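Progress report, Aim 2. The chain analyzed during this reporting quarter is listed below.
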Amino acid sequence: MNKPSRVFITGASSGLGAALARHYGASGAQLGLAGRRLDGLQDTAAGLDAHLYQADVRDAVAMQEAAAAFLNAVGVPDIVIAAAGISVGTLTEAAEDAPVFRAVMDANVLGLVHTFQPFVAAMRTNGGVLCGISSVAGVRGLPGGGAYSASKAAATVYLEALRLELKASGIAVVTVAPGYVDTPMTQVNPYAMPFKMTAQAAANKVARCIEQRRAYTVIPWQMAWVGRLLKWLPIPVYDAVFEKAPRKPRGLPT
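Predicted structure tokens for the chain:
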């Protein structure tokens, strides 16, 4: 794959999205950076060739407008990365968590659709890569994290379907499932996070997956083995190990 010259990234206000922006910006790519917080986007874009779009991936119209603006100002992207997401603890029995469930599912699943849809027709001409960020948390259901685990499982399956739909078009669909990445989303976790990566290290690994057009990759490799183990653990064993596992704090992030 040639060095990308145009890259559109969501979730670029902070964390992995911001690190991906810095990775591609360092090579001189023209960037489209979308996120909910304009101040965060401005911090990310410092010193980079970037167009900023304050938009929430849960808002289909806002994402269509951001995509149209990028296509008009910069051109058809070589890479579109859907890195935006919400990670927060949830409890089904808590009525106040119902809107949190919806927010997580809307951001982590429909946010992929809203990010990719406006670019697909334009990218059919020259191909390119659509990359979605899933998570190892989607391999099995985690107590207290039902919304997040379910959303990432759904994201992985959605991206697989999209990969098959677009295979003949020359557009590659790349799914990357990180383990723990040191970002504001994980810094509140009250438990040990094995094999935790810096955001920049994770971004470098994601970029490598995109360059090689890998269909599905868990990063880092150590977490890939953990994911395989979790997937094949018998239900009684899995339940015994994880029933009392520490839980992520509840409350929708601002």
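Residues 6-242 form a domain with the Rossmann fold fold (CATH 3.40.50.720). Residues 98-123 form the longest helix (26 residues). These observations will guide the mutagenesis work planned for the next reporting period.
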